[in-house]
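Dear colleagues,

As part of the handover before I leave the project, I'm documenting each prediction I ran so the next person doesn't have to rerun anything. This entry is a single chain, and its sequence is reproduced below.
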Amino acid sequence: MSEQIKLKPADESSAILRARAAVLAKEPEQTRFKSAGFNTVVFALGGETYAFASEFVREVYPLKDYTVVPGLPGFILGIVNVRGQIVSVVDLRKFFGLPEKGLGELNKVIVLRNDRMEFGIMADLILGSRKIYDEELQSSLLTISGLRADFLRGVTTDSLIVLDADRILNDPGMLIHEEFNARPD
């Protein structure tokens, strides 16, 4: 017995070849590359979890004692001596006007710095460091816990609030303008 090979009609073969050609002609899908990302210092303050880009963090310092300076705004707790340098200490809850919910220990100072300013930020607990990619950050139209949007770099899906350290450091509200008038002798 001989087997017969059936050939497909030319129309059907052409259609198959065109479909294959169309598949092969498609440009490969662009793989989505993650941004380089940035490293952060993650900390707890008043029951919330925050982060600053580590490029603005000079160091984390254990708070043993600070000196209250009269006449300063309420968000400045006082000053500390950090390795021979006097650094102002800021309570972000008071600066942002947030409720002081959750009793914290406030036993760490995160020393922030840029080319113009340097001061410490109070923290209850340092949770570590974390790399964050820009794609992870969601900008929120509503402010988180009353936090002003201009100090917010973004929020991750796991509710980590990433603050814009450079804006905080450059905020005019952080500068204390009080002129000193010397009394004549």
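The two ends are 129 Å apart (CA to CA). Residues 38-173 form a domain with the OB fold (Dihydrolipoamide Acetyltransferase, E2P) fold (CATH 2.40.50.180).

All the best with the project,
I.
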